[in-house]
Design a protein that fits this description.
By secondary structure, the protein is an alpha/beta fold. It is 37% helix and 22% strand.
């Protein structure tokens, strides 16, 4: 097997990405402190054509060289906005009809494997701080809390890994109900 060249990959331009149809998913970063994690979420969000990212609280915003180091330009293709308070982002999305889902381990959480994405609905997933997770205020305002099943000795995953798993899962479930 031969690795594909960049030309053979047929990647779209940033301008084409902005015009492309997106999956109905918004990612909210709630006090994510690592610039590398933020950049990774941008890159994953680009790969799976999400609508936008909402950066909240202490979460840094582009342009920044450390975000760019992992985003590799996805901070220019993926739409983003900053909200000082995560509660403002949630209220804005809820008013627009989004289903709000925190990715957090709580009593009554739904396993990601069992979470059903309904055709025609728009979703927002909240990913939290590397140490404290999703804020309790955001959890309280969520329609669902989704948990990634884990079977080892650790009780959590890095936020950028969590983002990759959750965004891929939503993308995979949504492509059967929405043509991208």
């Amino acid at each position: 097997m031969k690795k594909k060249t960049m030309i053979e990959l047929h990647r779209i331009s940033c301008e084409e990405f902005k015009k492309a149809r997106k999956i109905p998913l918004v990612v909210i970063l709630d006090d994510v402190r690592s610039l590398n994690n933020i950049g990774s979420v941008f890159r994953t969000s680009d790969a799976f054509v999400i609508e936008r990212i909402m950066l909240c609280g202490i979460t840094a915003t582009p342009p920044h060289p450390d975000i760019h180091k992992t985003a590799l330009g996805a901070e220019d293709s993926v739409e983003w906005e900053y909200c000082e308070r995560v509660t403002d982002a949630i209220e804005q999305l809820r008013a627009a009809g989004y289903v709000i889902c925190s990715v957090e381990q709580v009593n009554g959480s739904v396993s990601l494997n069992d979470f059903k994405v309904e055709p025609g609905k728009h979703y927002a997933v909240i990913l939290g701080n590397e140490v404290k997770g999703v804020s309790q205020q955001a959890v309280d305002m969520s329609d669902y809390c989704i948990e990634i099943p884990q079977y080892g000795t650790k009780h959590s995953l890095n936020v950028s890994i969590t983002a990759g798993i959750v965004i891929w899962d939503f993308f995979n479930k949504m492509i059967f109900s929405t043509k991208v």
